[in-house]
Amino acid sequence: MFSKSHTKYIQSLQQRKFRDEYGVFLAEGPKLVEELLRSPNLNCKQIFSLPFWLNANEQLVAAKNTIEVFEVQDFELEKISALATPNQVLAVFEKKKENQVDVTGKITLALDSIQDPGNLGTIIRIADWFGVENIICSRGCADMYNPKVIQSTMGSIARVNIVYTDLALWLKDKREVKTYAAALDGRNVKTLEGIKEGIILIGNESKGISDALLQMVNEKITIPKIGEAESLNAAVATGIILSHLFT
Amino acid sequence: MFSKSHTKYIQSLQQRKFRDEYGVFLAEGPKLVEELLRSPNLNCKQIFSLPFWLNANEQLVAAKNTIEVFEVQDFELEKISALATPNQVLAVFEKKKENQVDVTGKITLALDSIQDPGNLGTIIRIADWFGVENIICSRGCADMYNPKVIQSTMGSIARVNIVYTDLALWLKDKREVKTYAAALDGRNVKTLEGIKEGIILIGNESKGISDALLQMVNEKITIPKIGEAESLNAAVATGIILSHLFT
């Protein structure tokens, strides 16, 4: 039965400290939860749902037989939900294993201190759209299991492999592959077509790429500016670069 | 002197109703406020600032002689600020005049019910980056003067002309120019290079482009999907399309 201790547990998972301690993360809403339940890469531990959603998804839930299922009422879902409008179901999933990253013969994303959870989630979704398998995050990036990241990935969290590491050390170790960085005085993004292998380095929203990392970049890429805006959003820049690599 | 009635007035401007009634909008933080003060397109009505910022920007403020200036203390700025961390200065600007839009010989953006203020702000910033002069918003779009839109435009609000109208009627009237829409089964985005004139129609975040508008589209544009993500964020799609038109 749903109890006060569940409320406390779920609320604690809004904080990274407790997500790390328990090795789990939250997902909310029917669309996202259903997509993550269907993923072979994720294990669901608990479901807290209105009777309505449970009835409609009996088979999906039964197929994952390790799940604890709790039927909750509207006012209970409201207590545990972080959404402005609680939406039918909330689920607790185990964190994914980080897979080994092989950078040869493919495009890999590397993120230097992307701090806004919405930006990180959008970048994960963009990577998934273009079939980028791996994202390497510096330790200064937002936590991929932050609920705002999870909600904005729209399910892509299940498919993209994301690794947190010391990015400078990691890049040092990958010298056999070229590293490209979004910067102001580089090669026009439209000349990227045909590049099949490389690491694309994206910098922090306001500070760009740190000097230590910039030294390891082989080539800079520029999205030509015609108007006056000072910069482009980091996720938008990522989308533009990948679209020129892949289309 | 700063008074309770100022607090009430500023707080009311978080709501569209009062922004419409008074014809003004809010901007916060030194970077944004300074950029908007420098714009010849905007009139500032009031500034509420810590002494520190006022001292550093005496000339900038003096140059706009219609401004009422209020020196406030930290705890007062906290009361009127909508930011998680209040940042030195808050200003009230008059709304801009909507300019007539001429669509010939240029690229124009049209937005169908972009409801997320962050997305709308990011799209305005992208338009400014690529030198797109005009954005036509359907009445279902978020208010361009919503504080979240203003903050995420990063100053581009001053430079891009934005018009709210009945988009179907407006497009009907612009038949002399081709309308392109981001959709799933269209022409590859990479074939757009060289197009110098047209209206680019971007749809709602979850529903896409409404049927009524889709009928007025001359050509669909597709960003090829290689991976599995269900969709791309509307602002990211806008950035990708404009980058292929302009680079």
Question: How would you characterize this protein structure?
Answer:
Two copies of one chain form a homodimer. With about 250 residues, chain A is an alpha/beta fold. Helix content of chain A is about 35%, strand content about 20%. Chain A is built from eleven helices and ten strands. Chain A has helices spanning about 5-10, 15-20, 30-40, 50-55, 60, 75-80, 115-130, 145-155, 165-170, 210-215, 235-245; strands spanning about 25-30, 45-50, 70, 90-95, 105-110, 135-140, 160-165, 180-190, 200, 220. The first copy, chain A, has a six-stranded parallel β-sheet with strand order 7-6-5-9-8-10. A four-stranded mixed β-sheet of chain A has the order 1-4-2-3. The mean pLDDT of chain A is about 95. The interface of A and B includes residues 130 and 231 of A.
Q: Biggest interface, and residues per chain? A: A-B, 38 and 38 residues
What oligomeric arrangement do these chains adopt? homodimer
Query: What structural class do the secondary elements of chain A suggest?
Result: alpha/beta
- The tally of helices of chain A reads 11
Secondary-structure element series of chain A: HHEHEHHEHEEHEHEHEEHEH
Give the radius of gyration of chain A.
Answer: 20 Å
Instruction: Give the CA-CA distance, first to last residue of chain A.
Output: 51 Å
Beta-strand percent range of chain A: 15-25%
- Strand numbers in spatial order across the main sheet of chain A: 7-6-5-9-8-10
Number of DSSP-assigned strands of chain A: 10
Low-confidence stretches of chain A: none
State the major sheet of chain A. Answer: 6 strands, parallel
Helicity level of chain A = 25-40%
Give the averaged pLDDT of chain A, no decimals.
94
Per the principal axes of the C-alpha atoms, what is the gross shape of chain A? Answer: elongated
